[in-house]
Amino acid sequence: MPFFEGIEEFQNVHPALQWAIFIVAALILVVAAVSIVISIWLAIKYVAFNRRVNSRNLSGKDAARMILDRNGLQHIKVSVVGSMLFGNSYSHYFKKVRLRRLTTKKNSITSLAMGAEKSALAILDKEGDPDMKARVALTPLMYLGPFAFIPIVLLGVVIDLLVFNFSGVATLVAAALGIAIYAVSFALSISTLKTEVKAQARACEILKQEDMATEEEIGMMKELFRLYNIQYINDIIMEFLQMLLKILEFIAKMQSGSSSKN
Fold first, then answer.
1. Residue 23 pLDDT exceeds 80
2. What is the mean pLDDT of residues 79-100?
3. Which is the most buried residue in 39, 124, 167, 237, by most CB within 10 A?
4. Does any domain span residue 169?
5. Long-range contacts at 102-107 (CB < 8 A, ≥ 24 apart)
């Protein structure tokens, strides 16, 4: 195939596998382009709703504190996150609802939505929601999975050099293990989405029942949540394609190595 000419590691790979690698790589570029469009659309809506003051004049922090207190979660703190590392989030381990500084201070539709949704995650945690339980138990693996592949493979290479005299066995085993962890991380991303959707629905329900937002405002929040979900789904698809590409490249290297020995 012309697009693999000059790449030595693909010279002995079956054409069908080369095509598969090329198609997946092309899909990654397409999904990346779609992600940019979604991000721009989400940013526009976020800013627009963030400029509109909510009817109850509640900041994100006020809304979160009110919802938590009314649901027996006085022990859950509402903290301010000054960086973009965590963003608006809920931590089971630290018993905190983390809100960005602007979300904490502003009394906008966006701030109200974020404060309510992250507080709803704490409520799901308190109620023992099964999806939330799975998310809490496996969160470390979900976040470490995508970053574990390269270190695990490098460890395999080192073991090959020191123990197996450049045989490549440890490298192949390590690569397979890295791919397996990556696959588990991908599966857990789907579980995370389920809890976010549940929390969004619960937040809208609470805001309506407690008269903390009008029907129009809740409609805006639902639109914002939908865009967040679309972006998250797009990220899951990207993660799946990247995992698939790693698997195909792994198979290609095995095939190439086998052919060179013959």
1. yes
2. 80
3. 124
4. yes
5. 102/50, 103/60, 103/61, 104/59, 104/60, 104/61, 104/78, 104/80, 105/59, 105/60, 105/61, 106/50, 106/59, 106/60, 107/53, 107/54, 107/57, 107/58, 107/59, 107/62
